[in-house]
Each structure stands twice: as C-alpha cells, then as structure tokens.
Sequence to fold (371 residues):
Amino acid sequence: MKSDGFQPKILAFCCHYCAYASADLAGSMRIQYPPNVRIIRTPCTGRLETEYFMKAFENGADGVLVAGCLEGGCHFVEGNLCAKRRVNYSRDMLQEIGLEKERLRMVNISAAMARPLADSITDMVETVRKLGPSPLRKPETNPKQRKHS
Amino acid sequence: MIVAQRKNIPELLSIVENHRKVLLLGCGTCVTVCLAGGQREVSIIASALRMAARLKDLPLEVEELTVERQCDNVFLEQAAEATRQADAVVSLGCGAGVQALAERFAGKPVYAGLDTTFIGILEERGIWAEKCAACGACVLHLYGGICPITRCAKRLLNGPCSGSREDRCEVNPGRPCAWQLIYQRLKEIGQLDRLEGIKPPKNWRPSLSGGCRSIIREDHRV
Fold:
C-alpha cells in the first residue's frame, strides 16, 4: 500500500483575514487537526502566484492547500477570486508536469469557521495520503541530526 | 507589443531532453508585459521543467536569467557568460529574440520556449487581442484607426460583408465586426466621407510576400 506510515507534508497558505484567524480559533476551541500542515500566513490569497506553488512542489511538498475567504467576503474585494483562477491554472500546470492536480487545492473559510478548516485540513491530508508521497520529495534527513522541527 | 504564449511543459521537455544543462532566458520587454516570458515566467517554467525532468529521471539542470531585451545585441552581452556555461539556451523571448540569440551565440543550440502569436494590446486583464498584421503599408488613416486587415476576418477594404449579426463578426461571434467599429468611429470623428471612394486592391508587396523584410536607413548608418 502506498500510504504505509506515510506522513504527508502539506503547505497551507492561509489568508490573514479568515483562514489564519480560523486556525487560531481552532486552537482556542481545542479542535484537533492533523499536524501535517505547515501554515504560512499571507496578507490575502490574491498575493499568491503560480511561482509559489511550483517552488513548494519542487522543494518536496506533498500537497499545497490554499485557504482564502468565502467568495464575496474577501477583505480586498476579489483577491480570493484571483487566487481561485491561479490555483486552477497551477493545477493544470501540475498535470502537464506529471503530478496529480489533487495535490493542490483551494478552500474558502471564514474567520469563524474553525471546524470546517480542521475538516478541510483533515480531508486534504487524507487525499494526499492516498496519493502517496510526492515523487519529487527529497530523501528524509536522519531525525537524530534534525534540529527542532 | 508582441504577444506570445508559452509552449506546454511536455513539448518544452522534449525539446531539451537531450541536454544536461540549459539556460532558460527571459526577456524584459514585450513578453514580460504579456506575462509569457518575463522574470516571473522564467522562474515558473524553470521549476516546472526541473520537476518534469526529475519525474522522467532526466539529469536536466535549468539555469534562469532574464535580460532587458533579447532582440538587441547590446543586452545579449549580459547573457554571454551564462550561455557559455550552458549546453543549450531556451529563449522565452519572441521569435526575433530567439533568432538574435542564435546569431549572437553561433555555436550554441537555441530553442524557442514560446509561440510568438501576434502584435496586439491588452484589451482587459488577461485578454490580449491582435491589432496589427505588420503588412508594411498602413491604411489606418482611411479607417478611423481601426485596421480592417487585422480585425476583419475577411480582410475587406470596401465595407462589411453583410454576414455580421448585430455588431458581431459572423466568423467569430466572440469578436465585434470590424466594419461596425470603423463606421461608428468615422461617424464620431466626422469622417464618414472617407468611405465614399472605392479602395483599390491592397498592395501586398511590402508584406511578407517577398520574403524577409529589412529597412535600411542610410542616415543612421555608421
């Protein structure tokens, strides 16, 4: 089985105004979600470029999650709609490269949606776990040599 | 500006798969503005190429560089060292840039990473449209600044074809009828009389029919 013992490394770009706040709220509410995500706060998902997704996968990310505001609720009016189009473009590009497009996904979350955020992260982790490790993933360093993660 | 679009990654990889180290060279002029071959696109396509190569177990190294203008030999000097160190160059410039590179670096394979498409403008965000066919004998003064050669699907010079629906072209309903635009524009600027005479067949000799064109300006030669 592909997923034996496999712990996906997933990068989550979270908008400061919604998904990042909902992750904060999830912490306050003691809601659990898998520790496989590395959250990066962005001022708006509209700031994200295709380049960021490519670099993430090139450097061995198993999956990338983009979490922006609900449609119609962007702090900058339409940043999340720009992000949606860029994510779709990048998913097509991943297929051209030979990677599964399911490794990149966008979700829309409000600052109050702590539970849906946790569910989205869990679902993404499970999706990527089924796909298996990214074939571009770099070999693991020896955990004994690894500094604080 | 010259408008181009990127080749897809499998095609690009098939072009360079026999090389070990390639230079992906962007251009800071037209193709930067049309988001096809500037510094950012160099970064994206280089990443994509490296990943596609690794998935096929190809030992491909991709270096990145962008010069201000590939179609000018002066700017190509900035790429000389990087080109020397690479086995081949993939240009993300227009066709003129690719050929300028090939002439400047005679012993180096140079490939086109873009499909150069047309001379046009940004109509709205994310939409570029062709405006000029570079026919070599401009007639825009006769048609209110709207080119029937480029923008009429049938290249008609003496009025509409009668196939248009409302103001849409019958060949491509997604585009406006160029003759509708010409009429409106000439009416707005009070020059409808320009449509009264019959225009003779266009002289196509200054166009590509005679092969590659050149312009010689003795006053600027040294």
